[in-house]
Structure formats: structure tokens, C-alpha cells
Design a protein that fits this description.
This protein has 308 residues and is α+β, with helices and mostly antiparallel strands. The protein has 5 helices and 11 strands, in the order ααββααββββαβββββ. A 4-stranded antiparallel β-sheet has the order 4-3-6-7.
Length: 308
Amino acid sequence: MALSKAGDLRDRGFTLVELLVVCGILATLAYTAWGSYTGIQEGADDDIARAELQRLADGLKRFKADTGYYPGQGPFILAAPGTIEATNGNGFNCTPLGGILRSWAAPDTDADKDAWHASPTNLALLFESPALCANHPLAYLNRWNPETRRGWHGPYLDIASRKWVDHGIDFNADVANAAGPYAGSPYGAGTPLAGSKILDIPAFGAGTRFRAAGPSGSSCGSPELTAGTCMLGWREIPRETQGYEAGKHELRAHARPFAVFGLANNDSPRVVYFGRDGKYGGRNTTNPCLPNVAATDGDDDVVLCLAH
């Protein structure tokens, strides 16, 4: 019987079959590890979203505790179209009597102010004091009174978390009253990825970053961020700001917006996060405080009712 020398196995090396087997094992291990990492990352993203959702809910509750109203209630509604604003020395009176001055709303074109103000992602009232009509009986609520401990005492969210977002006007849909996208408070059945685009909404831009979403939920390229095809484009500053540059101030990736429904009409006041897919599953008609899991777009939605 021939004996092998000590160096024979070392010098022989691996066969092609052995190399392929080793590569297959390594690929399987890498795939398993990547899947585990992805699951951990997605879980962390969801945890961050829930924490930010709670922060938004707390801000809304503090707003109501200070003023007696949620945004969109009482004096915190936008004055009607055609309102005349006349100075009285202490501000501007409104005719007919309204709530927030229309000149306070950001869009230059008056026809765009209602849709902008009614947006469920518009959190301007949590970031800056409203300009209330001076002749409104509750006009004093536009500033904090330390003696009565009443009035606007914000900002209720960190200013650094304010970013400007676009979305489709279908998100404003008042389906409950069938009165069209401009009337009433959003019912929560619309989609942010459809309809004509509302621009430069001051939204809560905290949370993990995702690519902007187009009408189909796909990623938007940079040319689409200012075009009608990209419904969830973010900006560091509004487009009308002096010095604005699209290449510099458009955000290629940012958090999904947090939406607020049911404040004005006490229809299950709630905050909503519609997940990494950029789609909103719509209102759960059985219980608005739960995601609409019947819709595939609602699988990753998170809903937090303010009464809970």
C-alpha cells in the first residue's frame, strides 16, 4: 500500500466542485445575514416612526390644552374666500368675520390657500403663531398670556423638524360629506398620490428617510420632484424663498409625512403614518383608530387616536 506524503493534500488544492460548494455556503450565509439585517432595520424604522407619531400627538394635545381647541377648530379656521382685511391699529379686522387671516396662509394665489390650509399634513399651527382676525372674539389666543395661562404657547414641535412637502389634493377629500376636496375637514379616505399637487406644505419631517414617491408609489427622480408626477417631494425651504435652488434644497429622500385627521369635527381625532411604501391605505370605515388592513397600501400604516 502506497503511503501519501505529508504535503500531498496541501499541494493538491481545492477542486472546482469544492470551490462551488464553499461559494454556495457563503452565499447562503450572506443572504440569511442580510435578511436578518433588513428585518432589524425595518423594525427600527417602525419604532422611530411610532416615537415621532407620539411626539406629534403630544404637540396637538398641548395645543388644545393651551388654547382650548385643536387646529382647525374654533378660531383656528381659515377665513372664507373673499374676506376683506382692514387694519384697526392692533391688527386686521375681517369682513365677514373669520378666523385666521387669509394673508397668513402661505400660497400667493388666494385660490390655493384653502387646499393648502386643509391639508392633513399641514402643521403650520404647531410651528408658528396664527394671525387671527383682530375683531374675532378669541383673537387673544394668537399669543400666550402668562396671567390667564391661555393662548398659543408654541412652537409645539421642534422647528428643525419642519420641512415642506407636496402631495396630491385627493388627500384632502371630504368623502363623508361628499362636498369635494376643498370643503370641510379631510375624512381620511383620500390618497396623497393622486389629484393636482398642493405645494410647499409645512409638515412634520421627522423620522427615517425614504425616496420620494410617485403616483404609483415608485421613487421619483430629481426632475420629477417639482413636476406633477411626483406627489411626495420634500424641500428644505419653500420654493418661493429667496435663494431657493432646486438642486440644493430639494430633498431626494426624506421621511414619509405624518397626517392628521378628524380634529375639526371630532371624527376620531388621530395622527397617521403611512409607512415606507409612501402609500396610504385610507380610512378604516369600521374603526378609524385602526389602519385599513383591508387595503394592501395599509399594511404598514400606523394610526394613533388622540383620545387613547
